[in-house]
Write a structure and sequence with these properties.
This protein has about 625 residues and is α+β, with helices and mostly antiparallel strands. The protein is built from 25 helices and 13 strands. The chain has helices spanning about 1-25, 30-55, 60-65, 70-100, 110-135, 140, 150-160, 165-175, 180-190, 200-210, 255-275, 280-285, 285-300, 300-320, 350-355, 360-380, 415-430, 430-440, 450-465, 470-485, 490-510, 515-530, 535-555, 555-610, 620-635, and strands spanning about 220, 230, 235-240, 245-250, 325, 335-340, 345, 385, 395, 400-405, 410, 615, 620. Strands 1, 2, 3, 4 and 6 form a 5-stranded antiparallel sheet that branches. Strands 5-10-9-7 form a 4-stranded mixed sheet. Strands 8-11 form a two-stranded antiparallel ribbon. Helix 1 (about 1-25) packs across helix 2 (about 30-55) and helix 1 packs across helix 4. It is elongated, with a radius of gyration of 37 Å.
Length: about 625
């Protein structure tokens, strides 16, 4: 019993010592379960292995030790062996912690998986580069000059071959006519997403996993054949148990991984092109791609589209007109599944049969109500559908209009809405001076040196627009003007301009005799007068007065804060310099300690295994004994 008690005591002390030493070496909290496992392995594996090694070396006479003859030299050898056992156990535990961390750090398996993902991305990156080179985009990647009229066709071919993510990027880029020339934007707009529907056997498990229940407990009917398929997801129609007709949008299982990989490649390509091309730097290509990447990532989370739908539904109740939005089913909506009421009717682009049954007055009324609704969304509520084309407007038999597809919804703050109204009112009055002020604030421009030329260009544009009532032409000319003067148009402002331009196509389908420009400008004047009503004006004055009072009240404390900030900045600089010096010393000591340890371990092992030199009683090699110490310390 005494022997077992001593053995357990030794194991316990060994385990505690291992845990404390390894925690100190690695600077992390090592789990005690694996430390205990290491102690057991050390006691039952490392100790016998060390004993065998020492016995095979002939340093110790085992028969002499068995007779109880224990010279001082043997005790010294046993002490060195104990240090070796401890050092080997600590090394084993440190390696185990690196391979399989106790806590949320990166282990070797995570590194292997990450390396595998990086390899796949690298292969895909090389493939995209080969596609670009094959279609003649090599000069662009190398920083060479390519004329814009030459860039369109090869870029479209390359994007088509690169896959659905790059096609979608090209389609989104085609809407940024404030950055791209109209000719290039038109060619990118011709990109078509060729998506094949996924088999129901692949989509059904996604639905069950996301909804967390069998489909039969939710749907009375759910069609396995999709109504439509896109690059990220597909849409199925069905009926809930309560009788509501719905459409269910389901994300493809591997869409997120593919889009994330392609976004990473697109960002790297844009960074590469921007480093080599002055034109790319001028338009901020990498920043633009980052904005597109954020938009694509939002599309991967259907909860974002659900929030957009909820916003549009609330705005629809406040807006005049006949336009409605489908009702969301939030309990059947997740990151990869979106469920909403099915909108009856057909897309406005294919609604000629319904429109022919309506008289001219009814069609003009619907067109006028559509303009009222959209302008109310943009200029009053500040929440609007940013992909408003006739395919996303559903027309019912009674002439009622509904919106669908809420993946792209933009928001304008109050100041942007007021500035946009100012610009449109200035356009009607041909007041280029007021328009320049509005444009400078809308585009956050701070270089006023080109204002005279901007004033002349806007005045010329307004004069031509008063004669040509074509909003599409006006939009192209306006965005070309912004690009000419290198004005950075925020994405939501560009989206509002695009939406008003796209609205003309829908209005012309409803009533080709409508004067769309006059409809827009007449309502802009009404909205401007609404913004200038006494109640709003007094509220704005009161808010500004309160703001000024707050500034005056906090002026002394702000002065103290500036002084303190200056002092704190100086202290912070000194602290950063001190931290850098400490970090450099720690790195140097770590690297130096590792090198010294490796050298000691190597030299010690060579001396221990080689032996030789004078012998200590009883027949212990001096070099073996001396080498055991450095090897232990090195480990």
């Amino acid at each position: 019993m005494a022997a077992w008690f001593v053995a357990m005591l030794i194991v316990t002390l060994y385990v505690i010592g291992l845990g404390l030493i390894v925690r100190w070496l690695l600077g992390v909290s090592v789990g005690w379960v694996r430390t205990l496992l290491t102690g057991v392995i050390g006691f039952f594996v490392i100790v016998p292995a060390t004993a065998l090694a020492v016995g095979a070396s002939g340093i110790i006479d085992e028969e002499r030790m068995a007779r109880g003859d224990m010279p001082a030299g043997y005790l010294l050898v046993l002490l060195v062996c104990a240090i070796w056992v401890f050092a080997l156990g600590a090394t084993f535990l440190a390696c185990l912690e690196f391979i399989w961390p106790s806590h949320k750090s990166v282990g070797i398996f995570s590194r292997i998986r990450s390396g595998r993902d990086r390899l796949r991305r690298t292969i895909r990156y090389v493939h995209i580069l080969r596609v670009a080179m094959r279609h003649g985009l090599g000069p662009l990647l190398r920083g060479g000059a390519m004329r814009l009229e030459e860039l369109g066709p090869p870029l479209v071919r390359a994007l088509n071959e690169a896959g659905v993510t790059f096609v979608k990027i090209g389609q989104v880029l085609s809407s940024r006519r404030d950055i791209l020339p109209a000719s290039l934007a038109d060619q990118l707009a011709a990109l078509q997403t060729r998506a094949t529907a996924e088999d129901w056997s692949i989509i059904e498990p996604v639905l069950i996993a996301e909804l967390g229940q069998p489909l039969s407990s939710v749907f009375a009917r759910l069609d396995s054949r999709p109504l439509a398929a896109a690059s990220i997801g597909q849409v199925h129609s069905g009926t809930l148990l309560g009788g509501d007709e719905v459409v269910v949008k389901v994300q493809r299982p591997h869409a997120r991984a593919q889009v994330e990989a392609d976004i990473d490649i697109a960002l790297r390509l844009c960074r590469r092109i921007e480093c080599r091309s002055e034109a790319a730097r001028r338009i901020g290509l990498h920043r633009l791609m980052k904005d597109l990447a954020a938009s694509l990532r939002m599309e991967l989370d259907y909860r974002s589209e659900a929030r957009n739908l909820a916003l549009m539904e609330a705005a629809a109740h406040r807006a005049p007109g006949v336009m409605t939005v489908p009702r969301l089913h939030p309990d059947l909506t997740t990151r990869q599944v979106l469920t909403m009421d099915k909108v009856p009717g057909r897309p406005l682009a294919a609604g000629r049969e319904v429109l022919d049954k309506l008289d001219a007055d009814r069609r003009r009324e619907i067109a006028t109500n559509l303009v009222d609704s959209v302008l109310h969304q943009i200029l009053v509520d500040g929440v609007f559908h940013a992909d408003l084309h006739p395919g996303n407007i559903m027309l019912r038999d009674d002439g009622t209009l509904s919106l669908i597809d809420f993946g792209s919804v933009a928001i304008l703050d109050r100041e942007q809405r007021e500035l946009l109204v100012t610009f449109l009112a200035s356009m009607r009055a041909e007041d280029a001076h007021s328009a320049v002020v509005a444009v400078r604030h809308l585009t956050m421009g701070n270089d006023n040196r080109g204002d005279q030329q901007l004033l002349r260009d806007l005045g010329e544009l307004f004069t031509v627009t008063s004669i040509e009532q074509d909003t599409g032409v006006l939009t192209d000319r306006l965005l070309n003007l912004f690009r000419k003067h290198e004005l950075a148009v925020p994405g939501n402002i560009a989206a509002s301009v695009r939406t008003m331009a796209s609205l003309q196509e829908a209005v012309m389908l409803l009533d080709d005799g409508s004067d769309y420009g006059s409809l827009i400008l007449a309502r802009v004047n009404r909205i401007a007068l609404r913004l200038l009503n006494p109640v709003n004006t007094l509220s704005a004055i009161a808010a500004q007065a309160l703001t000024v009072m707050q500034y005056l009240r906090r002026l002394p404390s702000n002065a103290d804060a500036l002084t303190e900030a200056h002092t704190s900045r100086a202290r912070s600089h000194e602290s950063r310099e001190r931290d850098r010096r400490v970090w450099r010393l720690r790195v140097l000591s770590s690297v130096g300690g590792s090198a010294i340890g490796a050298t000691l371990a190597g030299v010690g092992l060579v001396m221990f295994l080689h032996g030789g030199g004078p012998t200590l009683p009883p027949d212990i090699s001096t070099l073996s004994l001396i080498g055991a110490g450095p090897a232990s310390i090195g480990l």
